Amino acid sequence: MSDTLIKILEQSIKNNWDRPALSDYKGATIHYRDLARRIAKRHILFESVGVRKGDKVAICSKNQANWAVAFLACLTYGAVPVPILHEFKPSNIEHIVNHSESKLLFAGNAILEGLSAANMPALTAIISLDDFSMVHTREKDAYVAMEHLNELFGKKYPKKFTQNDVTYKPESSGEELAMINYTSGTSGFSKGVMIPYRALRSNVLFAWQVLPQVNETSNVVSILPTAHMYGMMFEFLFEITVGAHVHFLTRIPSPTVILKAFEEIKPKIIISVPLVIEKIYKSRLLPFINNQGVRFLLRLPIADKKIKTQINETLTNSFGGEFEEVIIGGAAFNRDADKFFNSIGFKYTVGYGMTECAPIISYAHWNEKKVGSCGYAAPRMEIRIDSADPQNIPGEIQVRGENTMLGYFKNEQATKEAFTEDGWMRTGDLGILDSEGYLFIRGRSKNMLLGPSGQNIYPEEIESVINNMLYVVESLVIEDDGKLVALIYPDFEAAARDGFKTPKQLLAKMNENIAIVNEEMPNYSKVASVRIMPEEFEKTPKRSIKRYIYQN
Fold this sequence. Notes:
Layout (H helix, E strand, L loop, with lengths): L4 H11 L4 E5 L4 E3 H17 L7 E5 L4 H13 L2 E4 L6 H10 L2 E6 L1 H4 L12 E4 L5 E4 L2 H8 L1 H8 L20 E6 L9 E5 H14 L8 E4 L6 H14 L2 E4 L6 H11 L4 E3 L1 H16 L2 H6 L3 H18 L7 E3 L6 H9 L4 E3 L1 E2 L6 E4 L12 E2 L3 E6 L8 E7 L5 E2 L3 H7 L6 E9 L5 E6 L4 E2 L5 E2 L1 H8 L5 E9 L2 E8 L1 H6 L5 H17 L9 E4 L14 H5 L1
Parallel strand pairs: 1-11, 3-4, 3-5, 5-6, 10-11, 12-13, 13-14, 26-27
Antiparallel strand pairs: 1-2, 6-7, 8-9, 9-20, 15-16, 16-17, 18-19, 19-21, 21-22, 23-24, 25-26
Helix pairs in contact: 2-3, 2-7, 8-9
């Protein structure tokens, strides 16, 4: 396949002209012909406000069809989209807009209410993603262009707008910057991952190869944040290249809402993070499995097989019944759930990736997977383990190939640290490779946690705020049963001097502190509870807290 990513998108829009492309769940549907027109109008707007090839355009809203329109309009114009997670605080969003040097900002109205144009002085215009109206601009020509956009469209295409009018200038090189994806919103921690066209194209080709069942007749439900590479690539961009119909779940993706959507839409492929699947496992299956009578039957070979077949059929139907497989990624999968789903023959697999690889690193189809593994190296990718005995002694997982990033935007030091001297990218994760090349994750040297919908949670960010609170010496944020818990070692003497002498009084004060901290955090990063540590955390020789002791 020699076509560039832009030509692949162009051809798919032409080939699927009359097919449905994008829908907001329970809302309106945009066909590929409508998508083409909306993209063309955004291109006219870009020209009128002086956006040039390579200029950055920030996009921030909940999952919705117009998000996809803005993103595709950027790519096919040659602008560089900068997706921003809509759950970031206003100050975080403003920081990313400024750091990325974005010229335009597309955002949902709910996001715009908390932003100040004065805090983003480099922006030429701010545009509502809810209706594509101009919210703010410093350029009179931009307002005029927006007011007369339909007229300008008519002048540019005086005859009926057809497939022949869909011609996008392809990227000049696979190394050309396609998009920037920020790993976090906070100024001290955020890194803009520079993703080239070759990485996006390679991930698309990977999906074509391993998921040939997803085609122009397929439906897919987008439940993960489109601002993150995992959801953006495999619930949206890949689907557009094959003419599939993407349904954006615009509401909070609880298991009940997700399963209802699956039942109605019957997706051909399901992309998920472990927490969603584990919640379904715990709420729907464990009560049945733990029933005393069922546990007895599961010990009988004939009955065991029959019951597991029934469970698999019920679970499969609850996911819509027409999916090729459920691909789980983003974090380690619960081992008990992994074993059980495997034992009943459920069509699922666990992959491994990261933003810096746009995102796929390893994968195996559900009928090739190994329990506890994340598959083997994806096409056009290589994996090695920095260990004297990679099959038995865990070492850092290092990768190279077409999927890897260019580096971090305006951060040469972080880019240099991300690669070895011989050109392999450091993942920061620990693992082993078995004799067949299957990857097994053994730990995270990076400390990222995963939010309920796939959001990246960096505990250091939360800890840096907690550590500035009254009577806090040091803290550690861990995950416990899907919730964030703050372990705090307080200054007992200072607290006692001020009247907080009993454990109950001290805990109450720390809960007051956490309430203040939570005001600064997006919902998925809020701390659910506090535990007082009686003594200082155990440290490494470099005085870093030994996180693994407390997380376990």
